[in-house]
Amino acid sequence: MGHPDLRAEGVAIVAGSVTDLAGVTRAKYVPASRLDAFARSGMGVSPSWSVFCVDSGIAFTPTIGVAGDLRIRIDPDDLRVVEHGVAWAPGSLNDQYGRPAPLCTRTLLARYERAAADRGLDVRMGGELECTMLSADGGPATTDAWSPYGIRTSLDRSAFLVDLATTAERAGLPVEQLHTEYGHDQLEISLAPDTPVAAADAVILARIVLSRAAARHGLRISFSPVPFEGAAGNGAHLHLSLSDGDGPLLSGGDGPRGLRAGGAAAIAGVLDTLPDLIGLYAGSAVSALRLKPGNWAGATACWGLENREAAVRFIAATPGNPHGANMELKLIDPSANPYLAAAGFLGSALRGIDRSLDLPEEIPENPAQSGVPTRPLPLAQRDALDAMETSAAAAELLTPDIVAALVAVRRYECTTFGDMPPAQICDALRLAWTC
Questions:
Q1: Spans of the chain, pLDDT less than 70
Q2: How far apart are the first and last CA of the chain?
Q3: Helix-strand-coil percent breakdown of the chain, rounded to 5?
Q4: Considering the domain 3-101 in this protein, what is its CATH number?
Q5: Domain ranges across the chain
Q6: Which CATH code for domain 111-429?
Q7: Residue-wise DSSP of 320-355
Q8: Cα(320)–Cα(308) distance, rounded to whole angstroms?
Q9: pTM assigned to the model
């Protein structure tokens, strides 16, 4: 919207947010009159912001302690009105001299966006957000029988959904679809594809818009991977497409499902690093409760056409797919920092292209019934963190600094929540990722 419109929009305060390695979005605010300072010099934050934990603990590391200072800086052109009197923009972490901070995940994703452009590639990403509607006290929103995708279950919440759509449009959030989902009180919205950083920004904006619209209707929104033990889990799927001067990499070729050589190598690259990056994509204390066969969570390291049990679901270029062929990484959940998840996803695809990796055999049906062997994934939190901490690929893709800090944050969760019964963990973390 640009800052000259702030007064006309009735904006009194401006928020700039960053999302930490625990996946929690945190913000600072200034009066609208101080917007230029927010953009020019930024607002000060402790380096410990990057290693805040889901329960407000801090996972100090050998390089992150009580000393030092960073700055959140925003671009006024990114401002969106998210509530009456409040505008928001995504922030980037910088040091006191204006240089990107080593743990700024938005900067890391921007580097991969530039790296793709340097290779002559145009990249588009899009997010899907699954979430669970809750009552004002954090319990189930309804006790009625649930009809997955039902017209009744959606029309019962029509006032909220209309408010959500109206607020999203005002905020410039490109919502393509919204519907009640399979799980009880579950909702999903799909966002239009965009460049990688803009797509991750849109995920954060969507979480804010969802949460604030719900609050106006006496509801709360949970982005926990599993809000209630035994209930359907929430994913945070990302879609990725790649094109070069000759057209899309994921269609128009003579490879499997029409893949060109670069597209096949890109999918192979994503599959190749899955064991190393599970701790990034789904590394919270509650994530493993979702990553189970039969949950459509993509818990198997394979790919397949429209296969919802595969970690990488391939969507072909057909008349029913106006955005063209793309790959969907299904095992990402909402506890992941969306900038870092997108960076790992895109970085792995580029790594596969650079190495001309061979695409494994497609699994076109349920992996559990296919009889085709697949690489095991370290799904338990401790196993996932051990794999990531010792992975050369993770260090290459994410930087050693980010890996060390992410592991510290998630190991704090292991210590704090790891011995709790599943129901207690779900209760403790139900609102941890709510905006």
A1: 1-4
A2: 22
A3: 35, 25, 40
A4: 3.10.20.70
A5: 3-101, 111-429
A6: 3.30.590.10
A7: T-TT--EEEETT--TTS-HHHHHHHHHHHHHHHHHH
A8: 18
A9: 0.97
